Amino acid sequence: MTPVHFSFTSAFILGLMGLTFHRTHLLSALLCLEGMMLSLFIALALWALQFEATSFSTAPLLLLAFSACEASTGLALLVATARTHGTDRLQNLNLLQC
Fold first, then answer.
1. CA nearest to 35, candidates 59, 13, 65
2. Which pLDDT tens digit goes with each residue over 1-36?
């Protein structure tokens, strides 16, 4: 495994571990998701450049577009949660109670 592949793999795994183990605030969960998406974007872009596949060059841009939609949805949920509950702590959220 090259150092570049190791760095992207470790960045993705660190984001996943942060999402799994440090779920106190909604903002930290969103930041971990964005870190995972950024590592996936860079890995896909380098993979398309490495294999010189012109047909696969749109995949990183599609992933980036979906990542931007995910980020905007997450921030909208963060604002709505902060307005209704007064905090963004995940322990205070109950999906069964609206």
1. 13
2. 788 889 989 999 999 999 898 878 888 999 999 999
